[in-house]
Amino acid sequence: xxxxxxxxxxxxxxxxxVLSSLGKGLAAASIGALLESRGMTVTFQKLDPYxxxxxxTMNPFQHGEVYVTDDGAETDLDMGHYERYTDAVMTxxxxxxxxxxxxxxxxxxxxGEYLGGTVQMIPHITDEIKQAVMxxxxxVDVAIIEIGGTVGDIEGLPFIEAIxxxxxxxxxxxxxxxxxxxxxxxxxxxxxxxxxxxxSVKELLASGIQPDILICRTEVPLxxxxxxxxxxxxxxxxxxxxxxIDVDTIYELPLRLHEEGADDRILQKLGIWTGAxxxxxxxxxxxxxKNPVHTVTIGITGKYVELxxxxxxxxxxxxxxxxxNDTKVELKYIAADDxxxxxxxxxxxxxxxxxxxxxxxxxxxxxxxxxxPMRERTRYPSSVYVWxxxxxxxxxxxxxxx
Length: 402
Description:
- It is built from 15 helices and 14 strands.
- The strands form 4 sheets. A 7-stranded parallel β-sheet has the order 5-2-6-1-7-10-11, with helices on both faces. The chain has a 3-stranded parallel β-sheet with strand order 13-12-14.
- α5 (121-134) packs across α6.
- β10 (213-218), α8 (224-234) and β11 form a beta-alpha-beta unit.
- By secondary structure, the chain is of the alpha/beta class.
- Helices cover 36% and strands 18% of the residues.
- Pathway: Pyrimidine metabolism; CTP biosynthesis via de novo pathway; CTP from UDP: step 2/2.
- InterPro entries: Class_I_gatase-like, CTP_synthase, CTP_synthase_N, GATASE, P-loop_NTPase.
């Protein structure tokens, strides 16, 4: 691809290994927050390997919530993390899936844009991915690209190959590979095990990518000897092995990564100089979270409560409202199906307020309506919100606008 000397944007590519749900989205958001605290502008992009064109019709039990952006795009829930941690505004160009990429390539083939050539994974699919990424070039100082899934997954190989090629297109000063991995602590043996990380990096190397920085998710701190061992077997320098220890609140993660020197290493490897970061807003936020004056319990009566990520934005909105009011918000998830059977009425009585999120289909509808009379018998005024239901809410007398 064409490389221009005037290029402004530098790209950080974040991959994950060992297993899923390690927190790549939170790591990306935290890195973006640290770069913003140094006066830089950032944006994000999530590349999801699944074949669905977008998550809009996916089962919330499998995928979690669908995050709707300002321009109406139905996207991955990580877009919410990006917007909550930084000033970046997400749109449809910030989330691509394999399905969307394949669909675009197939439409081009049908229109004859490939002039009758054989359409292949390389270069056509990988070029389409690179084109999606390069839309962000010139828009901000740093673009952070998160690759969904786990290194080694067959469906993710085109994305890994595309970002491998981008290193050659962009050059080392404009691209950086960060690999998030797991360093488990075996409690029965009292030992930290580095072998999963070694094998994860080996898998990434087999795809042609040498990570520049490792972020190691762990339950316990990693001492220098462990970091040196990981660095030796993963072919990187020891200061680039960053500990990401479990934290009490996810909003503490930017501070912990800063203490580990993650932002310094990133800027050094990208050849960027900035002043010291202003982390005081994050310190103040964490202090408020850990030292609340009040406590309230809010019940969430929904259809998908078995997977709390199905209501991630609602969850975080309530937490944020509590932070602004020096209040710890304890969330009690109550299945709408159980309310229909009359099994969870006692749990409702323990709540100071009730949130009723929307859902699809008729299942659980009666259970979501059941909390409405609670306002008349609870100790506190309860707030009930209902929206996005797939049935006409105005036909129910209990939910009529009047």
